[in-house]
C-alpha cells in the first residue's frame, strides 16, 4: 500500500515536489534568516537539552540496554534488528519514490517483499544475501532532495539531535515507526520500547569508544549529525540503518557511529560518495 501511494505521488511529477520543497525552504529561511548563519544558533538551549538527555541515558537507558545485551542471545538480537530494519525498508522505498529515484525505490520495495515473506516478517535478512542492499531513507532526506536546506541544528528532549528540516519531517517519520503496525496501545508501547532499547544496545561499544576520544561530546555529536545528513545526490551513499525510533543519547551515538564506524551487530556500509562537511550541510 505504501509503495503504491509512493508511485502515484512520484508520477505526479518531480517539478511539483521540487516546488513544494522550495516553498518550504523559503518559509524556514524567513524564520531562520540567511543560509549563511551559524549552524547552531541555539547552542545554549541545545547544550541544556543535551545534558538532560545524557543524564537520562546514563541513569535509565544505558543500564537497561546493557542488561538486554547480556541477557538476550546475539542471534535473537540480530533477528530483532532485522525485523525493525524491514519496517524501515518499506518507508525507505516510499521516500526513494518521492525523491524520483524509482529504480532504487523498486529495489527497496523488492527487498521489503522478500524479507517479509521468505524472511519470516523480516526476522531473516534474505534480501541482502540475494544482492538487494539496504538504502536507508527518511522524509527529512526527501525534503533535502526536493531542495530544502538542512537548517539550524537543534536538540530535542528524548528525541535527541535534529535540524529544522528533520524536525519538520519527524511527525511523518514517527508515523512510519515500528509501533504503527499494532493498533493496541500497550503493544505500541512495548514495540517502541523494545526498538529503543535494542538500538541503544547496538551502540554500546561505539558509545564507549566516543567517551575516550571526544573532548566535547556535544560538539562531536553535532558535527557528526550535520555531516551525516548533508548529502542528497542521486548516487547517495548506502547508510547503515538505525533500527526503530532513535531517541536521546543513542540518537547522538548513532549519528556519530555512522560517521566513524558501524556497531558490531550492524553490517558495514558501502560508501559510494563521502558526505559533505558540516559547513556545507546548509545548502
Task: Provide the descriptors you would attach to this structure in a database record.
two-stranded antiparallel ribbon, mainly alpha, disordered C terminus, 3% strand
- The radius of gyration is 18 Å
Strand tally is 2
What strand line-up does the widest sheet have? 1-2
Ends: how far apart? 33 Å
Residues in β-strands, percent: under 5%
pLDDT averaged residue by residue: 76
Give the biggest beta sheet.
2 strands, antiparallel
Class from helix and strand fractions: mainly alpha
Contiguous low-pLDDT stretches (5 residues minimum) are 1-18, 27-37, 233-283
Shape label? globular
Percent of residues in helices: 55-70%
- Provide the succession of SSEs: HHHHHHHEEHHHHH
- Assembly annotation: single chain
- Put simply, the count of helices is 12
Verbal overview:
62% of the residues lie in helices and 3% in strands. With 283 residues, it is an all-alpha fold. A two-stranded antiparallel ribbon has the order 1-2. Helix 1 runs parallel beside helix 4 (74-98), helix 3 (43-71) packs across helix 9 and helix 11 crosses helix 12 (248-260). The model is unreliable at 1-18, 27-37 and 233-283 (pLDDT under 50).
Annotate the secondary structure layout.
Elements: H1 2-11, H2 14-32, H3 43-71, H4 74-98, H5 102-117, H6 126-129, H7 139-145, E1 153-156, E2 160-163, H8 164-175, H9 185-202, H10 204-213, H11 217-228, H12 248-260
Antiparallel strand pairs: 1-2
Helix pairs in contact: 1-4, 3-9, 4-5, 7-8, 11-12
Amino acid at each position: 500500500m505504501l509503495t503504491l501511494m509512493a508511485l502515484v505521488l512520484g508520477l505526479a511529477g518531480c517539478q511539483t515536489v521540487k516546488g513544494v520543497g522550495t516553498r518550504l525552504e523559503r518559509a524556514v529561511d524567513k524564520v531562520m534568516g540567511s543560509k549563511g548563519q551559524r549552524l547552531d544558533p541555539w547552542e545554549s538551549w541545545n547544550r541544556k537539552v543535551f545534558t538532560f538527555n545524557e543524564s537520562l541515558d546514563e541513569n535509565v537507558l544505558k543500564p537497561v540496554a546493557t542488561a538486554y545485551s547480556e541477557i538476550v542471545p546475539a542471534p535473537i538480537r540480530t533477528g530483532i534488528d532485522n525485523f525493525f530494519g524491514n519496517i524501515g525498508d518499506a518507508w525507505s522505498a516510499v521516500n526513494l519514490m518521492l525523491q524520483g529515484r524509482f529504480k532504487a525505490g523498486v529495489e527497496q520495495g523488492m527487498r521489503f517483499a522478500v524479507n517479509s515473506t521468505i524472511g519470516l516478517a523480516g526476522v531473516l535478512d534474505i534480501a541482502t544475501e540475494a544482492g538487494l542492499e539496504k538504502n536507508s531513507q527518511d522524509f527529512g532526506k526527501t525534503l533535502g532532495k526536493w531542495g530544502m536546506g538542512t537548517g539550524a541544528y537543534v536538540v530535542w528532549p528524548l528525541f535527541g539531535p535534529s535540524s529544522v528540516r528533520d524536525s519538520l519531517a519527524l511527525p511523518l517519520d514517527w508515523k512510519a515507526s515500528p509501533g504503527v503496525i499494532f493498533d493496541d496501545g500497550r503493544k505500541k508501547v512495548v514495540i517502541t520500547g523494545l526498538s529503543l532499547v535494542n538500538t541503544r544496545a547496538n551502540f554500546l561499544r561505539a558509545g564507549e569508544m566516543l567517551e575516550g576520544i571526544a573532548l566535547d561530546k556535544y560538539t562531536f555529536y553535532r558535527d557528526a549529525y550535520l555531516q551525516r545528513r548533508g548529502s542528497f545526490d542521486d548516487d547517495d551513499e548506502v547508510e547503515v540503518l538505525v533500527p526503530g525510533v532513535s531517541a536521546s543519547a543513542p540518537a547522538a551515538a548513532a549519528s556519530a557511529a555512522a560517521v566513524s564506524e558501524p556497531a558490531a551487530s550492524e553490517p558495514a556500509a558501502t560508501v559510494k560518495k563521502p558526505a559533505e562537511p558540516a559547513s556545507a550541510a546548509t545548502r
